[in-house]
């Protein structure tokens, strides 16, 4: 539950997905959430949660293939990347899914794969798909159950302050939004769409799906010593903050720990590890160049090959594993140039370097000059032009 560790994991996961897994095609996010009466059994039984996710995505894939056949596209295949979250923005336990699904189908050709975009789903199609998920409860696959021990009682308390296991959820009617459906507590949202060229938006969406439960910037301490947590959106009664004692916050955070041995990022369809079409889709796989990712039929602008992220000095040339590289004759492209920070950095051959305490032989990622080791200084990133919420 470390906020900084979760932020790093979310960032690394998002970069990996965008640069090495997800092809350059448009995407639509499908978000499925569940009523209070069935959240508990999903939290207790991770296997059942996986089965529900499988049934949900099978329904989405079947919808995509049916819509493709109406356009004369046969043998179309689909895929998805799903993020399983067990928390909400108010630190409550609420299992739900965020699934990134390519907004179209992949049609195999001889020696290649062609992506064919599809129009957005209609409101009726979203509502019918949600009714398929609702059938799971009607057929007894999602029974209402209660807690059995102390930890489960804490988790149940974070589900709802006054929890009723068998009552139908009573909520305020939500504002009508396109491609969103609500049925007896089940909720399905499919109105978030990303263009094929919006890779930054795709990375931001992946980072949102892989994020942790606790946002450190929302925590503050009150004058009476209690801890306040600012919610993402106010409650219907106008409440904006949750107040905890130190022990109460620990109890709430402990209830948000995911079940052990549960994979929170899942791959499905043509994006699954063993899929036959995956080598034709991923931008890079196993460090070797693959065929170019399929482009959307409506997009004619060529995609630029993105450089994998990492230490900028390691990308300047193929240096042997485990040893340093010689001091270059001129600064790296991304290296900071004089004036250097006095007392901390040194100017060497037109660039700013930090002298390493270790002497030769130097370790990998450092430069060696006259028996001394140096670490290059990266020039600062440009100031952002806008602030993301």
What's a quick, concise take on this entry?
It comes from Hyalangium minutum. The chain is of the alpha+beta class and 389 residues long. It contains eight helices and 18 strands.
Note down, in words, how this protein is organized:
The protein is α+β, with helices and mostly antiparallel strands and 389 residues long. It is 26% helix and 24% strand. It has 2 domains: 3-214 and 256-289, no CATH class; 312-376, no CATH class. The strands form 5 sheets. The protein has a 6-stranded antiparallel sheet with strand order 6-7-1-3-2-11. A 5-stranded mixed sheet has the order 14-17-18-16-15, with no helix packed on it. Strand 8 (219-221) and strand 9 form a beta hairpin. Helix 2 (36-44) packs across helix 3 (46-70) and helix 3 packs antiparallel against helix 4. The protein starts with a helix and ends in a 13-residue tail after the last strand.
List the helices and strands and how they pair.
Blueprint: H1 3-20, E1 27-33, H2 36-44, H3 46-70, E2 79-87, E3 93-102, E4 104-109, E5 112-117, H4 123-138, H5 150-159, E6 180-183, E7 186-194, H6 199-209, E8 219-221, E9 227-230, E10 241-244, H7 246-254, E11 265-269, H8 278-281, E12 284-285, E13 288-289, E14 325-326, E15 346-348, E16 351-359, E17 367-369, E18 372-376
Parallel strand pairs: 14-17
Antiparallel strand pairs: 1-3, 1-7, 2-3, 2-11, 4-5, 6-7, 8-9, 9-10, 12-13, 15-16, 16-18, 17-18
